[in-house]
């Protein structure tokens, strides 16, 4: 199968990693079990027996405690809801990307002498009691010298010590003794997290505008010097490029410290960093950030709000207003409460985004009470892999030629299809898709390894301020534009009578004919793939031992008998 003509630079940088190797994660003593199913909202991610999960949240700022649930300028009511989601899930740990409090003392509730970060520590105690870890980092709302001294004391697990669960985390590192427990890195099973602090340091030194620059050597060492079968995610509070806030991870705006930004993007790209995660902007946004010379890129997530505040991105977009990196928008959802569930399944890392209404009419609310509901909806899923490809497909672009690298004698390719979506973000920028492929080993009853194929859904674009009601009101379906998928059966023998072909793994762990998903009427064809056939058509070609299907959504696929 020919190489995809659409591959971005990250497609081939880490291609050999995990190929032909056992994909099971190493079990560490003390790591939380992930055997529990995902929450009921939305389609659960199927996983292998060795897969494990963790959570992500952001920005728990709040005002006065008007309803008795939100002490210390912290969104305690939302923290409790997300704590319970992690407990129900059996997550290993929960990560927060900054702004743990709104102000560092409890002035809103008439107690200016009381520090609020310790109250945050109390609000995550249910996680600790359940054996679940909690890791965080500072945001601009806890940026003082006092907070820098206090933070590692409230969260001693950032240094790999203390009474709180480490969730199997090992190999802790910081760029210096001064930044220990502020900027830090650790490994959990086959994942390395690199967590960055850019605010005033414990000795009162440093500037938010350049505090990342003297950490770049350490960042590069942590990214580059890791096992080949280990994922890597970088987390900070501010973003490489924001949506609402102009100030960034590297300074006052995305063009500040341009050489440092370019070096950071090179490290991310050449080091195979899966994602860079941030908060700060209180809305959900995914995009590809690319260096000024166009050579290096990484996917950025701005995590949505878990606070009383919701910000609207600027128009024109910040990336288009400053001479810094460029941005390709992938998804956007505004004015909702959010959290994320990450499943690490050997060489495949999958992210599911859940959100719920603020309990007020859709729009940029300012909350004074915790929403009374607990109605989370699945909104979108995406992935990164160590043994597959990554392809950016613009609106109107072709899927033809997107491949999954040969794995254990099998290969896969999209033979036809076009990105017909015409969605844009609130700044009017057309959204592209990032199509990601990857493999995990076959389980019993599967005639091929499992193909993970993500990013083919229609772009998430909830940002219309003329909408009314409690939104989101439903799960997304994951449906996208039609495409034709072919998987090479290798040496597998089969009957070409419609009982063998491409199967999709359902949320309950059962397999179904991939062509039948979404209620499509199925039709079997014996022979070569028909690229002009409707969704629901599937077949096998006995002369090449390849199976094919016309689909309209991604997922996890394998060749099976008895479909």
Summary tags:
9-stranded mixed β-sheet, 563 residues, mainly beta, 6-stranded mixed β-sheet, 2 domains, 11% helix, Purple Acid Phosphatase, chain A, domain 2, 7 helices
Describe this structure in words.
The chain is mainly beta and 563 residues long. It has two domains: 38-385, Purple Acid Phosphatase, chain A, domain 2 (4-Layer Sandwich); 391-561. Helix content is 11%, strand content 28%. It contains seven helices and 29 strands. The chain has helices at 10-13, 76-89, 117-123, 125-129, 145-154, 216-224, 258-270; strands at residues 52-57, 93-96, 105-106, 111-115, 133-135, 170-173, 184-188, 191-195, 231-235, 275-278, 284-290, 297-302, 326-333, 337-345, 348-356, 377-385, 390-393, 403-407, 410-417, 433-440, 450-454, 461-462, 483-488, 500-505, 511-513, 523-526, 537-541, 546-551, 555-561. The chain has a nine-stranded mixed β-sheet with strand order 6-7-8-9-10-12-11-13-22. Strand 18 and strand 19 (410-417) form a beta hairpin. Helix 6 (216-224) runs parallel beside helix 7 (258-270). The longest helix has 14 residues, at 76-89. The radius of gyration is 23 Å and the shape is globular. The two termini are 26 Å apart. Mean pLDDT is 92; it is low at 1-42.
